[in-house]
Amino acid sequence: xxxARLLRISGIVQxxxxxxxxxxxxxxxxxxxxxxNRADGTVEALAIGSAAQxxxxxxxxxxxxxxxxxxxxxxxxxxxxxxxPTDFSVAPDA
Length: 94
Hints:
Layout: E1 3-12, H1 18-29, E2 32-37, E3 43-49, H2 51-63, E4 69-78, E5 88-90
Parallel strand pairs: 2-5
Antiparallel strand pairs: 1-3, 1-4, 2-3
């Protein structure tokens, strides 16, 4: 079953290749969606996949890439968009 989660990642997560690294991890896991920088210094991500895929990406999000310092990951369930994205990408800043 396909599910969607909206993540808000806080800490030192901008300027450290967080979004590109998340896209690589998500695509390896088969997760669709996007990640973007927010004006408040957080990264927001929409992740779409199976429960196992989403759990794995959320676990990755809590660590992030080597230069990131993640302090919090907020996760909430959302409805999957229609149409579904074809992959996971870096989206324009919000």
